[in-house]
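During the second half of the funding period, the structural biology subgroup turned its attention to how the target accommodates small molecules. The most pressing case was coenzyme A, which had performed well in the primary screen but for which no bound structure existed. We therefore specified the complex as follows and requested a full 3D prediction, including the ligand pose.
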Amino acid sequence: MVMSEFQIVPATPDMLPDILALEEACFSSPWTRKMLEAELTNNQFAHFLVARRREESIPQAEPTIIGYHCFWIVFEELRLMNLAVRESMRRRGVGKALVTEALRLGLEQAATRAVLEVRASNDPACSLYARLGFVQIGRRPRYYTNPIEHAVLMEMHPLVISSGQQLAKVLL
Ligand SMILES: CC(C)(COP(=O)(O)OP(=O)(O)OC[C@H]1O[C@@H](n2cnc3c(N)ncnc32)[C@H](O)[C@@H]1OP(=O)(O)O)[C@@H](O)C(=O)NCCC(=O)NCCS
């Protein structure tokens, strides 16, 4: 899938059911509807983006949500909070585009550092973040439940978008 086949747009409350379904499909301890709703509507620091594409087989259909990314910009710090891509759409650049757009928005708002936590066993996510320039700076023992697992703490400081990173078509 090339970039032009999906677009990144800000999430809106009507997208909540689709985001929740994707969240529940992707995580063993998913965020609840209430948690997602709070980020979408009630958190001044939160930004919520979705990646969506139109189904080629159903030209009239509403674009389908294939990924999302929730992140906070808290003064100089960008915090990546939640990221998921539909399983059938992975390894096509959607996750990278969603994180790159967060980095771009962070830079635009003068953030200088980006941080995140990820399950130690989550190789796809760790590879994605490393590829974008994040480095491991620590561990939080037994941070996650279901199953219990360490978190790897990763950071990008200074915050940069490397020249090789393409930006997706973003409709803001
Ligand atoms: C992690 C996740 C968001 C990645 O999304 P994605 O759209 O598949 O990622 P991309 O296609 O943009 O991958 C970009 C790069 O990340 C790395 N990467 C992504 N998935 C990988 C995998 N399964 N194995 C190894 N490297 C991987 C590769 O370097 C890849 O570049 P390449 O395809 O050119 O080799 C997706 O696997 C996912 O939703 N996982 C379940 C939810 C989750 O773990 N979220 C993260 C919580 S911290």
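Two results from this model are relevant to the next phase. The first strand starts at residue 7 and ends at 10. The pocket of coenzyme A is lined by residues 26, 83-85, 90-96, 118, 122-125, 127-128, 131 (CB under 6 Å).
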